[in-house]
What does this fold into?
Amino acid sequence: MEESIFLSMDEEEILRRKKAAYRAVMRQKRRKKRLVKARLILAGLILFIVLIIGLLVFMISRLIDAVRAGHETEPLSAAFGGIERALEPEPVEEEVIEEPEQRLYHASEDGNIAGIGGEVVGSYVILVDKTNDRVMAGRNYKTVINPASMTKVLTLLVAVEHLSPEQLDDTFTLTFDITNYAYVHDCSTAGFAENETVTVRDLLYGTILPSGGDAAVGLATYIAGSHEAFVEMMNEKLAEMGLADTAHFTNCVGLYDEAHHCTCYDMAMIMATAMDNELCREILSARKYTTSSTPEHPAGIDLSNWFLRRIEDKDCGLTVLGGKTGFVKESGNCAVSLGVRDDGSEYVCVVAASRSAWRCIYDHVAVYQQFFDAGYVPMSEEEAESAIEEDTQEWKEIKRQEEEQR
It folds into this structure.
């Protein structure tokens, strides 16, 4: 029957009827979808209303309880507060790590303060018993001097106190102004290039081992935003340490300036404080360090603390653990060092206005030997100069060989 009906129609009529049937089916499907969607919306609305009613009932019950307890004026927020507290996760107690309180050093001058032997050339000298907080020996150690690059011990200390462990691997780009500062003022440098990006750790080691002016100014800028702002922090630290009466710095490098000064006693206290900081102690005690790889220096830069490397084979009666040198032509060579005896007791020595870098090393050796080497026999001037000449030639060869190996 159906076949006969279709046979009596032309193709156009058949197509029209099929389309009409298809549209009817689709309309029926859309009606079913709308019906399902309407039911879902209705169910959601009913659930929402139930939740609201439940919340209102909870709030009302809280208010009733408050009134019964004699708190008729309890604000509505208390009810909400109860809800919030109920929904908040239980607080997790964080472990509080107490940082050790930093010690501010003061060395007593009570008792007998020994003189310094005549074989020590430096005009200003102090030896401090760090363990027992007393001045053991000295020469003009309360006279104001220019500390030259010994300044960088305080630069290191202030920087480290404002760094977190995570920041050591941060990077910093040394701008033209930073590298040019070292060039214009004829500073020693770590050797970083203009626009080179290095790690903060590299800046710390570069400040101390080669006494890098580029590294010091870069470090100051990273910490405080500018060299000037960092110097303010340095002077604040001096005030905190009780040294501001005689110590005042105008730069973080150690350039000569009449207003840039401290005493040997001040520098001994700065060194003692720095060596109590774990990271400062690590850096001030490092003999060598290689900076991280950069496009400008793919193999890094090899840095050396020549003072420590040259004094470590001298018989001082103790082990010289850390040190920092300095030089400006207006005040000569200087250095601060920390020595440790076998029993763990520590001593700080500062020598300023010595004749040369090598002579300053021999001055430190002589000071330590005078008090810690029972068999010490002072060197004559001729013996000292002869020994220095031999050391100079030997270390020239050592430096040449190291440069060839790079």
